[in-house]
Amino acid sequence: MHIDHIALNAVDLDEEIAFFTDFLGLKLLQRWDEPRQAYVGFEEGPVFGLIDNPDFDGEAFTKAHIAFAIP
Asked: What is the pLDDT of residue 60?
C-alpha cells in the first residue's frame, strides 16, 4: 500500500498549477478540462491532484482527499 495522490482544492486552477510548478519546481503531469483538474508532482509519485473548486472558502464542502493504492 502507498499514497497514490493527495487532492487539494484549487480556487484558481491556473494559479495553483503555476505555484506548484514555478515556485516548488514540480512538473505538470496531466491536465483535464472536464472536470477541471490537474496532476502535478514527480513522475515517481505520489502526486498532488489539484481540483478546480472556485467557490471553496475553507468552510464549505471540500473535494480534498488522500488516495491510497492498495494491491
From this structure: 72
* pLDDT tens digits, 35-56: 899 999 988 878 999 999 888 8
Give the separation between CA 7 and CA 66, rounded to whole angstroms. Answer: 6
Of 56, 58, 22, nearest to 36 (Cα)? 56
Is residue 27 classed as helix, strand or coil in its secondary structure? strand
- Three-class secondary structure of residue 41 per DSSP: strand
Report how far apart, in Å, the C-alpha atoms of 19 and of each of 2, 15, 28, 59, 60 are. 25, 6, 11, 22, 23
Measured distance CA(67)–CA(49) in Å, rounded: 10
